[in-house]
Amino acid sequence: MHYVITGGAGFIGNNLIAEILRKEPDAFITCIDNFDPFYSPAIKDFNIREFRALPNFRFLSIDLAKTPATRLTELIPEPIDVIVHLAGKAGVRPSIQNPEAYQEANIIGLQHTLDFAHQKNCSQFVFASSSSVYGVNDHFPWKEDEQLLPISPYAMTKLAGEMMGHVYHRLYGMRFIALRFFTVYGPGQRPDLAIHKFTRSILADKPIPVFGNGSTSRDYTFVADTVQGILGAMQYKGSGFEIINLGNHYTVTLLELIAAIENVIGKKAIIDWQPDQPGDVPRTFADISKARQLLGYNPSTRLEQGLRAFYDWYKTNQAILE
Description:
Number of helices: 12
């Protein structure tokens, strides 16, 4: 099997590659990543350090938004079984400051990758969407057929990506599976995300910013559970177009999260209260019945267990992360 993983040097991507190679040691992986400076490229390089020497691993440092399909077919001449498109610019708040960059990376980059999949006759395309597409919606837990009203440029690009996939499915018969991720965390988590930032600040006796009154809540999903959902989508042979939530089916408030991190670290946080941020939704909560039915998805990692796994990873790799 030949798998193309875009954004493969990132948080979810490197965890996915590790699990693929554990399950299928003879699989060939083409990893694409442009080491976007959104956070330190050294961390991404660190993420894939153990893969680089493998004969069945190829790394391409390219920007998909600037690389048309014809060039991609030159760089990747072999047949492809599955493309998992994780690449793109992340972050709700930064997208408000620079929406054009998000449209370029998340829409044009996907366009080029879908054109490439079509040219290669790749019949299985898995796309990383986001729970942010739901916007402000109090119909909890969220089902995939909810009305979608994004409130940030980032969320808008993810919704556009889902619809672009539907177009390619209808035009070319490509199976397109959009996975709406819900606040993924765990070993390898990006340094800009809350759990990573909070851990770093608590250990350094620095205040952590808390936006609003701390009552906002998220459906935190451990990365190993998310990866299992992605693997299920890679193998899915049912209908040709699906949108599927990958969450944990329970929510945790921001103050509950901080208390759980404090408990794992054994140290109290210093809180810096801040006003609500534009683009942030007050709550996310996934209905995962569709993922259970179609993908055999069964998230099993509770928050404190996942936080301990993250903290162990953080302590082990602290030198490269700071």
